[in-house]
Request: fold
Amino acid sequence: MLPPQLTPEERARALESATQARRLRADVKAKVKKGELSVGQVIDRANNEPAIAKMRVLELLESQTGIGKIRAIALMDRLKISHSRRIQGLGVHQRLGLLHSLDPTSMRGKLLVLSGPGGVGKSTVATRLKEKSNFWVSISATTRSPRATERDGVDYYFLSEEEFEARVQKDEFLEYAQFAGARYGTPRDGVEKALRDGKNVLLEIEIEGARQVRAHSKEALLVFLSPPSWDELVARLEARGSDSPERRAQRLELARQEMAAAVEFDHVIVNDEVERVVEALVLLAPNQRTLSGPSY
Ligand code: 5GP
Reply:
């Protein structure tokens, strides 16, 4: 079949739009070179911008500083991407492989640490966050006894002192601390796996543990949950019928010290309304990279 005959005007328009597309690609490559755009951002933009979708993968990779032609070709060979492939022709796994090779951290989920004084409502927020979002909420280990409504493996892993200590010795905790007469720790493996799988992770822990995470992990974002007022916090602690009076007094004194730690955190959120806190936390973590390919 013969190609359709174009009128001179149509031909002029087609030429003009091809020129604009070339200019856009040149501009995008220049921005990648200057570090103003990442390869990942360009690949994302290709989903909506046909001119970018037509860019050759090799040219895109070469424009990133530090990747010469040889490295770009080696990377493409490893991912079985033909040298003439355009972005629009990349398969889902090739896209993810490219992003992962260029920036292994781009695939990881965000690690959010929610801390604050005992009784401020961290666990209610964590439970709601789990229901409402794609966050993976870590289940801690503790040596304290379960409360009436708590279940082993759901609320906590309830361990004996010996079991807890054995895990400390095997370096199985990402962080651990003593709190009001009991030990609490975050199992390391689950958190690492979830982050590797690209899930956003929430740790709901007390201040000392949050400090340990800060010391060992640059990627963590620390959020301090603050009560609307000190009186409100006292009322909440007093309302905990399940604790003995000595334990309540201990918790109150601790809470006083804990409130002073707010300045060490990246963000302070006032727990005036659970839904608002949950929304604020969701906004702090980027959406997970989806596995969906382009829609054309
Ligand atoms: P509760 O005994 O009331 O469940 O928790 C007491 C405190 O321990 C709370 O402030 C809670 O956030 C904290 N906590 C729970 N799990 C962990 C953990 O794995 N590590 C640390 N450091 N604190 C935890």
About this structure: The first helix runs from residue 8 to 34.
